[in-house]
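Re: that chain you flagged

S.,

Sorry for the slow reply, it's been a week of failed gels. I finally had a moment to sit down with the sequence you sent. For the record, here it is as I used it:
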Amino acid sequence: MTPDHLTLLRSVMLSNSESILQLRCSGCGANLSTAAEGVAGNGTVMLAHVCPFCESANVAPSHFSAQLPDVVLAFGIGADQAKEAVRRYLRSRPLAPRREVLNALPERFRGIYVPAYLYSATARCAFSATIIESYVTTEKDPQTQENKSVSHSYPVEFQGETQLRVRDIVVSASNSVSDTILETLKPFDLRLLRRYSPSLLLGFWAEQHAQSIADRKVSARRLADEVCTRQAVRFLPGDDQKNVVCNVVLEDEAIDPVLLPVWQISIPVGPNKHAVVYVNGQTGLCCGEVPASPWSVFWGVMGFVVFILAVISIIYGIYVWV
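Prediction finished late last night. Pasting the structure tokens below so you have them in one place:
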């Protein structure tokens, strides 16, 4: 959590006048929260609870001690906008199961606050590299006596130190939504972080942080190290660089919990199988691996066969005419 974005007080507690329903899925182990009187993001009342991650119906009321974060990044787009984003996403994939998606939207489209951690730190980077400097000279060809351009290069050993601020490193704290998915859905506009209120859960799910700060800090440090190395390479002089080594020391670390807005649609692709498309709850950016629909594959193959037969008929007709 960066000082630039998070200056909120950390004294927010759940209001006694607002009820939060806690549920636990025995299928995937997810701990979920929602407003007890909530209405689902698609407009249907949440009476029959189904896990938004694994589609298990084994979701029962529970009580767990974990607290929701003090700050939340609220949804910026509604269900209708997110649905249209999914349709556009699937239109860009000709074999995607569009009919199944349209049928699935009413009951399988959910808004979920995904648990994550925001990491920031001050990084001291000591780097070394072999810098390749290139230049061009004009020389006379001894055979043709004509001038020609000749490229030359020479290596220079280079080393230095720099200090920079690493901020807004996002790592997932969910067992169902990975770092890769959140990275694909970025950017999230962290300037819009707001203080947590139970009313924000009205119509949405919120997963409890399933992974501890200690565990996720390791991944956050690795990502910060990669960011520092990329920035060091970007500012190295020379026409090319080789043997780049960047030793990063992280100081003044801060890592804090947050909830990120993600729309999710679960698409049935077979018996007890589902594919998931995720939508950034602010921008509408989509990601997810959607297998080809059997009917789309069938009609695609049929179209290809018809095309081949048409080409053969044309060639045969030309041959007979000649």
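What I noticed first: The longest strand covers residues 109-140.

Talk soon,
D.
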